[in-house]
Amino acid sequence: MTRVISDSPIDGDDVVLLAVPASGAYLGVLRTATAGLAARLQFTLDEIEDLRIAVDEACAMLLAAADLPPGEEIELSCRFTVTEDALTVETTVPAASARMPLPAGESFAWQVLSALADEVHAKASNGWASIRLTKRRPGPR
After folding, report:
1. Distance of alpha carbon 67 from alpha carbon 50, whole angstroms
2. C-alpha–C-alpha distance, residues 7 and 77, integer Å
3. DSSP-assigned letter for residue 118
4. What phi and psi, each to the nearest 5 degrees, are found at residue 29?
5. Terminal CA-to-CA distance of the chain, rounded, Å?
6. Does pTM surpass 0.90?
7. Higher pLDDT, 61 or 34
């Protein structure tokens, strides 16, 4: 079940937090949210598609790293922060802290993310893995 956890401004920023079951079947919801929020910042159609692909790729990496306990559903959370000049998307899943589940900086998947977003950060600690993408608002057109 998809649910919107928050849709409230924090320090002047618009923040939307979506949580979906940790399954590839729900990535379309996150891609659609990404496109809608990027459109608010007047990204071009190509930039919106780049962000959709980047969010999809980041989520796929995290799903591969997620701990899926038998018979228990976990959630993939996605926090969208819309500022005056950027859209930041942070995706998070529970992950084993004993292994490094995220790709190395030289991997193909990481190169794709780096090409599609202005900033890309990943971390795995305390039983969680997350990837944060930031795309800056385009200048005057």
Report:
1. 28
2. 14
3. S
4. -60, -45
5. 39
6. no
7. 34
Question: Which residue carries 């899943």 as its tokens?
Answer: 93
CB 65 within 8 A of CB 120: no
Structure tokens at 110: 């990481």
The angle at the Cα of 65, spanning 62 to 68, to the nearest 5 degrees, equals 105
Residue with tokens 């320090």: 11
Backbone angles phi, psi at 30, to 5 degrees: -70, -35
Domains in the chain: boundaries = 3-136
- Between CA 136 and CA 141 the distance in angstroms is 14
CATH topology of domain 3-136: Heat Shock Protein 90 (3.30.565)
Tokens matching residue 33: 């949210």
Q: What is the DSSP string of 24-47?
A: GGGHHHHHHHHHHHHHHTT--HHH
pLDDT tens digits along 112-121: 899 999 999 9
Residue 42 zone, left/alpha/beta (φ > 0; ψ -120 to 50; rest): left
